[in-house]
Amino acid sequence: MLAKRIIPCLDVKDGRVVKGVNFVNLRDAGDPVEIAAAYEKEGADELTFLDITASHEKRDIILDVVAHTAEKVFMPLTVGGGVRTLEDIRNLLNAGADKVAINTAAVHDPEFVRTAAGRFGSQCIVVAIDAKRVVLETKAAESKLPWCDQHPDLFLTENEPEPIFEVFTHGGRNPTGIHAVRWARLMEIYGAGEVLVTSMDRDGTKKGYDLELNRFISESLTIPLIASGGAGTLEHLFEGIVQGKADAVLAASIFHFKEFTIGETKKYLKAKGVAVRL
Amino acid sequence: MIAVIDYGMGNLRSVQKALETVGARAILTHDPEEILNADSVVLPGVGAFKDCMANLKRLGLVDPVRASIESGKPFLGICLGLQLLFEESEEFGPVHGLGILPGKVVRFPEGCSETESGAPMKIPHMGWNSVEVKKKDPLFKVVPDHSYFYFVHSYYVIPEDPTMVATTTRYGVEFVSGIQHENIYAFQFHPEKSQTLGLSLLERFSRLN
User: Fold this and answer.
1) Domain extents in chain B
2) Contact A70 B128 (CB under 8 A)
3) Which residues in chain A are closer than 8 Å to B127, comparing Cβ atoms?
4) What is the sign of the dihedral through the CA atoms of A160, A146, A170 and A254?
């Protein structure tokens, strides 16, 4: 039986883990390699690094982090944040990443996903989708995306049935006018191997995943879905899997601050009938 | 020395590092001479079957791979490295493989379900799934039944000869996740991504010679 995956996510800035991680017995609580090794020991199924390095000059630091992690940790590693070109992908994969998450670059140019999947294989292309619930009181804004005429069906219309989920970029600041469920379907057709769906309404709130968002997208795809944004309790993870129909659940703070270990999480899920790897 | 064949397909560094972690000496190479001189050979690979096969041909590696297997040295195929050993794949095909083992590579059937809700299984088959050992080979002694390994693939092999089946896994269908035939070992899962158990399999393999 395929196990549901539990994926801790680390925000990495200039090669250091930010937002704090509260592990005991770490020599250096900001070192992504040490934290990755600690999560492996706890039984994490995969690991995701989100690179939030702002300055362009420091962008190569993540490659060193990935290389050092891949020498020590033998589980799948996904890296997202600032993946814009085929060269970015090649560099990350060569450094030892197994998958890359593409977000803004896919919205700017969907063909980028198709090209990347053709070049490197669907198995390593994760499309990250940041979505928000929106209410359309007036006519949807005209899209400024250069490719919008090619896929007019992706954009929100006046008669959209609720709830309406819109794709946002830049950490939820920029609306795109794109319908999140239809976008996910296009990304699957273009060769994404998996989608990582983050609810921008729930991210950081600890109120639980947006279950409708995840379920609508998961049920319309044949590729796996990772739910993200809002996990604050073990029950949230359970709901994400059972009601949100997620194949994997991603969380940050509940693991980082040792509210729950990965082992405790899996025991809880197993007791509730979810297939997990113990 | 173990030669990990580098033909531009996938995360080879992980395979090399995993072998080094279990105490083996491993080089990444596409030099036919180095492959032939190695004590054992690993053929990894992710991506599309057709591209992998094309790259092997372009780099002149088909004959060295075959010669290495025929010499009786331990050989390990991982993921596409398993599939490539067979005669043909239906992925963008049919496409011919190395044809060293009789059998073919097929896609998971659409719409299979194992849950009460009847939700279809997702393809690719991605994540940790359990493996049942079907063959008493010394290499698999370290693998208890129902052990989890990491998979990522949409196609699987159907070998003609059932005696080659070393492990099976269920995902909508029961498929062959491990092969053992004479000096050939091959896994559909990724031992280099399967934490302690994966490393112990690689350690056993590295000590075969």
Assistant:
1) 2-206
2) no
3) 2-5, 45, 224, 247-248
4) positive
Determine whether B64 is exposed, middle or buried from the number of CB atoms within 10 Å of its CB (0-12, 13-18, 19+). Answer: buried
Sort A211 into a burial class: Cβ within 10 Å, 0-12 / 13-18 / 19+.
buried
Q: Where are the beta strands (DSSP E) in A164-206?
A: 164-169, 174-179, 194-199
* pTM > 0.90: yes or no: yes
Nearest of B201, B192, B195 to residue B11 by alpha carbon: B192
The CATH architecture one would assign to domain B2-206 is 3-Layer(aba) Sandwich (3.40)
The owner of tokens 């992504």 is: A32
Neighbours of A248 (CB within 10 A): 23
pLDDT exceeding 90 applies to what percent of chain B?
78
φ and ψ at residue A248, rounded to 5 degrees: -150, 150
Question: What confidence tens digit (pLDDT) does each residue in A14-49 have?
Answer: 999 886 566 556 666 689 999 999 999 999 999 999
Q: Are B19 and B2 in contact (CB under 8 A)?
A: yes
Record: contact A3-B148, CB cut-off 8 A? yes
User: pLDDT per residue over A237-247, tens digit each?
Assistant: 999 999 999 99
Inter-axis angle of helices A262-271 and A32-42, nearest 10:
30
Contact B161, B102 (CB under 8 A): yes
Q: Which helix (H) or strand (E) holds A235?
A: helix A234-242
